[in-house]
Amino acid sequence: METISVSRLQHELEELLHEHRPDGQEGQVAEYIPALKQANPTHLAASICLLAGEQVQAGDVDIRFTMQSMSKVITLAMALMDCGEACVFEKVGMEPTGDPFNSIMKLEIMRPNKPLNPMINAGAIAVTSLLHGSGTEEKVERILSFVRRLARNPAIGFNEDVYRSEQETADLNRALAYFMKQYEVIEGDVEDVLDVYFKQCAIEVNCWDVARIGAVFANRGRDPETGEVIMPEHVAKICKTFMVTCGMYNASGEFAIRVGIPAKSGVSGGIMGVVPHCMGIGIYSPALDEKGNSVAGVRLLQSLSARWGLSIF
Ligand SMILES: NC(=O)CC[C@H](N)C(=O)O
């Protein structure tokens, strides 16, 4: 990896933004959650949080968007801290599926009937069901306060419209959750678990928040500015490993070859990138490819990785 000159990185990020902005035209904004349809497919933004604390940003960085599947990394870290590895991996596996993120197929055919990993919807719903807290409100509050600490942004909340929109239309996620209840992967009230899951997906951030969260993972669980331990190193390590193997859904293998950065995407068009010991990256561009990853976002990350030698492999 090259030594990073902040002014050169700033200049190159602006060039890459310009180069990749038209790529969004090749994708489509997510429609299955109706509120996400309102996103503007020409938006593109990137923020980088270097571990020395510098901020490098370009594009539509003021746009706020929901975390969606990026939140799965956060709740995984929390569940590992709340219950420990043995308990988490009793309920979810460690293997990529090669299937779309909302597929029910392997859940039905695998024995035991538990989700293959915590980055697919079924796995993330199971992980959310493990979080400590006495009711849905307390669980949501715990997730929000963890995200605020990671991002160092006390203003972070969740988007009520996006939450409601998903809540009203999430029949597939409901099917996954009820299936898991039947097989005792999740316990308790299914609708309560789903309520927490929909709210975590609707947490609203901007690119800098995402870069800042990524930087904590890049810094082995420590706040890059203060050095405070926010999560144990082994928890950050497990999360980063899942980002490599499963973070970009069933495009994770191709992404590892072409980009080589641990990353997690969401259907809002956000991508969180983590370059170990170096930087956190937040990308936003809402037009998605057929696997649910941001078209312009993936290409921008590919160019950035090639120019700066960021691949971990
Ligand atoms: N891939 C995603 O970002 C999926 C998250 C979305 N809330 C869902 O459950 O369908």
Can you put this structure into words, describing what you see?
This is Glutaminase. Its EC number is 3.5.1.2. The structure is a single chain. The protein is an alpha+beta fold. The protein folds into 2 domains: 6-68 and 206-308, Beta-lactamase; 69-201, 3-Layer(aba) Sandwich (Beta-lactamase), CATH 3.40.710. 47% of the residues lie in helices and 10% in strands. The protein contains 13 helices and 7 strands. It has helices spanning 6-20, 71-83, 85-91, 105-109, 121-129, 136-151, 160-169, 171-182, 190-201, 207-218, 233-246, 252-258, 295-308, and strands at residues 45-50, 55-59, 65-66, 204-205, 263-265, 270-275, 279-284. It has a 5-stranded antiparallel beta sheet with strand order 2-1-7-6-5. A hairpin with a 3-residue loop joins strand 6 and strand 7. Helix 2 (71-83) crosses helix 11 (233-246). The radius of gyration is 18 Å and the shape is globular. Glutamine is lined by residues 68-69, 101-102, 121, 166, 173, 201, 266-267, 292. Glutamine binds next to loops.
What's the layout of helices and strands?
Blueprint (H helix, E strand, L loop, with lengths): L5 H15 L24 E6 L4 E5 L5 E2 L4 H13 L1 H7 L13 H5 L11 H9 L6 H16 L8 H10 L1 H12 L7 H12 L2 E2 L1 H12 L14 H14 L5 H7 L4 E3 L4 E6 L3 E6 L10 H14 L5
Antiparallel strand pairs: 1-2, 1-7, 3-4, 5-6, 6-7
Helix pairs in contact: 1-13, 2-3, 2-11, 5-8, 5-9, 6-9, 7-9, 8-9
The structure holds glutamine.
The site of glutamine (GLN) has 11 residues, from loops.
GO molecular function, one term: glutaminase activity
InterPro entries: Beta-lactam/transpept-like, Glutaminase
EC number: 3.5.1.2
